[in-house]
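Running low. Invent one:
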Amino acid sequence: MKVLQRSHMENRLYNGCLNRKVSIDYDGNIKNCPSFKHSYGNIKNVRIKDVIMTKQFRELWTINKEKIEVCKDCELRPVCTDCRAHLSNPNNIYSKPQKCTYDPLTSNWK
């Protein structure tokens, strides 16, 4: 039960998928997520700790459901994970996850 409570609180305050996570791809590129194209450097040239401590890398950690369009009105937001790699509007980091098929305004799954 404590794990669920911790996960629930983390999802309320932070991004459930990206918070405190780091990904290193096959070529050594440091990213927030393996699905992201953007890299913050390469492990051959920069220390992981230095990348993680940057404001730019941590910025995505704080995009919780309260800040995401449509999700902020959803009753499932505290238990929902989030994918910032696949967005309804790729030009808006706060847009609804593309893979989500739930409509909180009608309480229906599409």
